[in-house]
Design goal:
Layout: H1 6-17, E1 23-26, E2 39-42, H2 48-58, H3 71-82, H4 90-97, H5 99-108, E3 116-118, E4 131-135, E5 145-147, H6 150-163, E6 169-173, E7 178-187, E8 190-201, E9 208-213, H7 216-220, H8 222-235, E10 241-249, E11 254-260, H9 268-276, H10 280-288, E12 304-310, E13 315-321, H11 323-329, E14 334-337, E15 344-345, E16 357-363, H12 366-379, E17 381-384
Parallel strand pairs: 1-2
Antiparallel strand pairs: 3-6, 4-5, 4-6, 7-8, 7-10, 8-9, 9-12, 10-11, 12-16, 13-15, 13-17, 14-16
Helix pairs in contact: 2-3, 3-4, 4-5
C-alpha cells in the first residue's frame, strides 16, 4: 500500500476484510494509517527503486493506492516491472499524473482547457496575465501560484521548477469561475458521474478549505460536464477505473484544469458514499483484484453536505476538543484526524497537506447546514502542547 493518509485507513480495512495482509509504505514516520497496517516501512511512495525492492523482499502480490495522485505512477511502474496486476499501465499513469503530458492530450483531443504553455524559462511565455504557474508533477496544490506580473512569474516559475521531480512547469491563463470537483467511475469505457461538488478555497490561494454539495452551477450544465468527462476517458483510453476531474465553470462553459484516474483525496470517498451510496475505495480494491464493479444508475442524494478542512496557526498538535460532543449532538456527521500527535505547524497554509483535521456536516436545508457550520466553527478547538487553541477559525468562512 502506497501512502498512509486518512483515506488509506478505509483501504486497509477493505483489504483486511478479504483476508489480505497489508504492508504500508509512507514518507512520514507516523502516518495516521500506520496503526491499521500489518507492517510499515518509512519509504517515500515516489521512490520507485525503494518500493520495488520492498515489493520483491516482501514477495507482495499487489501494489495499490487510493485517493492520492503521484503514487499512481509508482504503483503502475513497479507493478509493470514485477508483472503484478494493476488497473493502469505505466504510460496511462504517466499521462494522468504529469500535467505536461495531460495538457498535450487535452489539446490533441479538443478537451476544453485554459490556454497554456510548456516552457524552459519564464522568458519563453507568450500568454497574457493573469497566469497560473504549476509544477507538472505535484499534488495537493503544491507550488500552484497565480501571478499578475513578470517578476511574480519569474519567482513562481523558479519555485515550481524546484518542486517538480522532472523540472517541468506548466503556465496557463487564469480562468475565473466556480471550481467543481467531479468524481466518476469508468465502467467498460463508459464514464458515470457519481458526485459533483464545489471546491471553496482560501482567498488568495489554491488551497481547498471546503467541499460543498450540491453545486448548482455544475448541475445546470450537467450534460456538458458528462460529455467532457466521457471525452477525457476516451482520449486517455480509460476502460475501468475511478476518475477525478477538476474544472472551472461560469455556469455555461467548462474549462478542465486537470484530472486523474483516482478518487478525490481527503474525505471525498465519504462524500461520494453520502451522495451516491457507493464505496469507491472498496470498488477500487475489487478492480485491483481483477474484478469489474458494476455501477448502477446514480441518482444523487437530495441533501446538503459540506466537508470542512481545518488548518492551524503555529504550534505543536496535542489533541482535538469539542468534536465528540458535537458529533453526539448531531451537529457533525463525522470528523477526521489527518495528522499525528506532535505534528508541527509553522502557521502558514501552503497546500492541502497542511490540514490537521476535518469534519462533515449534513442537512436537509441550506439554512440548517449554515447553522451547524456556525456552531462547529464556534465550539471546536485544536489544542497545542502549550494549551492554546491553534485552530484557524478564520479560514472556515461562511457557507455561501
Amino acid at each position: 500500500m502506497l501512502a498512509g493518509g486518512y483515506p488509506q485507513i478505509s483501504l486497509i480495512n477493505s483489504l483486511k476484510r478479504r483476508g489480505i495482509t497489508t504492508i504500508l509504505a509512507d514518507y512520514y514516520s507516523e502516518p495516521v494509517a500506520k496503526k491499521y497496517a500489518d507492517a510499515f516501512y518509512q519509504i517515500s511512495t515516489l521512490d520507485v527503486d525503494a518500493i520495488r525492492q520492498l515489493a520483491v523482499r516482501e514477495n507482495v502480490g499487489l501494489i495499490i493506492t487510493v485517493c492520492t495522485d503521484q503514487a499512481l505512477l509508482t504503483m503502475a511502474r513497479v507493478s509493470e516491472d514485477l508483472g503484478l496486476p494493476c488497473y493502469l499501465d505505466y504510460n496511462t499513469a504517466l499521462n494522468v499524473t504529469n500535467k505536461q503530458h495531460m495538457k498535450k492530450v487535452f489539446a490533441e483531443n479538443g478537451i476544453p482547457t485554459a490556454e497554456f504553455a510548456i516552457a524552459e524559462s519564464p522568458a519563453d511565455i507568450r500568454l497574457n496575465f493573469p497566469l497560473v504557474v504549476k509544477p507538472a508533477d505535484c499534488n495537493s496544490s503544491k507550488g500552484v501560484v497565480k501571478v499578475s506580473s513578470s517578476p511574480e512569474l519569474e519567482d513562481a516559475f523558479t519555485s515550481a521548477k524546484k518542486l517538480s521531480r522532472t523540472g517541468s512547469v506548466i503556465v496557463e491563463r487564469y480562468t475565473a469561475g466556480v471550481e467543481v470537483s467531479v468524481d466518476a467511475w469508468v465502467e467498460n469505457g463508459q464514464a458515470k458521474i457519481l458526485c459533483m461538488s464545489r471546491n471553496d478555497k482560501i482567498p488568495g490561494t489554491f488551497v481547498i478549505f471546503r467541499g460543498f454539495y450540491p453545486c448548482p452551477e455544475a448541475m445546470k450544465i450537467g450534460a456538458k460536464i458528462q460529455e467532457t468527462v466521457q471525452k477525457i476517458a476516451d482520449a486517455f483510453g480509460l476502460k475501468n477505473c475511478p476518475m477525478l476531474i477538476q474544472l472551472i465553470t461560469d455556469g455555461e462553459n467548462v474549462h478542465v484544469l486537470e484530472f486523474s484516474a483516482r478518487t478525490g483525496g481527503g474525505t471525498k470517498h465519504i462524500m461520494i458514499n453520502h451522495v451516491a451510496g457507493l464505496d469507491v475505495v472498496d470498488m477500487t480494491v475489487e478492480l485491483a483484484l481483477g474484478n469489474f464493479p458494476e455501477v448502477p444508475a446514480v441518482s444523487m442524494a437530495d441533501t446538503y453536505l459540506a466537508d470542512e478542512f481545518i488548518y492551524c496557526s503555529e504550534g505543536v498538535f496535542e489533541r482535538l476538543e469539542g468534536f465528540d460532543a458535537l458529533k453526539e449532538k448531531g451537529t457533525l456527521t463525522d470528523y477526521y484526524l489527518f495528522k499525528w500527535d506532535g505534528a508541527e505547524f509553522d502557521g502558514g497554509v501552503h497546500n492541502s497537506g497542511d490540514r490537521i483535521a476535518g469534519f462533515t456536516i449534513k442537512a436537509d436545508t441550506l439554512e440548517e447546514l449554515t447553522l451547524k457550520h456556525d456552531e462547529a466553527v464556534k465550539h471546536l478547538s485544536v489544542i497545542g502542547q502549550d494549551g492554546r487553541d491553534i485552530m484557524r477559525h478564520d479560514l472556515l468562512g461562511g457557507i455561501l
